[in-house]
């Protein structure tokens, strides 16, 4: 998956009523938006690619085997290994 550098969602803040009125345009903007109600954050609108990156990251962080492998790689203790691209866990 290609990593998208996500901007701070607070860079684009809209009230619920403004977000409702502009929803089609917002959905096509490819940006993240913070939606507020009475000056309190209530929701976030994300491009699907950013959402998928977040889900993929959470999946990796919740997988003990993947985390063990990532820690070993970061510490330089992992030898080269061919990845099984047809396997959900890449053969790790």
Low-confidence stretches: 1-6
Name the CATH class of the largest domain. Answer: Alpha Beta
* Straight-line N-to-C gap: 18 Å
CATH-defined topology of the largest domain: YefM-like fold
Mean pLDDT: 85
Named at the architecture level, the CATH assignment of the largest domain is 3-Layer(aba) Sandwich
Shape field? elongated
Structural class of the helices, strands and pairings?
alpha+beta
Spatial arrangement of strands, main beta sheet:
1-2-3
Along the chain, the helix and strand elements come as EHHEEHH
Total of helices: 4
Strand element count: 3
β-strand amount: 15-25%
Query: How many domain units?
Result: 2
Work out the helicity level: 25-40%
Brief descriptors of the model:
3 strands, alpha+beta, three-stranded mixed β-sheet, 2 domains, elongated, YefM-like fold, 92 residues
């Amino acid at each position: 998956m290609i990593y998208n550098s996500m901007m701070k969602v607070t860079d684009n803040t809209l009230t619920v009523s403004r977000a409702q009125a502009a929803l089609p345009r917002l959905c096509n903007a490819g940006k993240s938006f913070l939606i507020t109600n009475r000056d309190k954050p209530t929701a976030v609108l994300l491009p699907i690619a950013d959402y998928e990156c977040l889900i993929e990251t959470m999946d990796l962080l919740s997988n003990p085997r993947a985390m063990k492998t990532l820690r070993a790689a970061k510490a330089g203790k992992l030898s080269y290994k061919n990845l099984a691209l047809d396997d959900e866990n890449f053969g790790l």
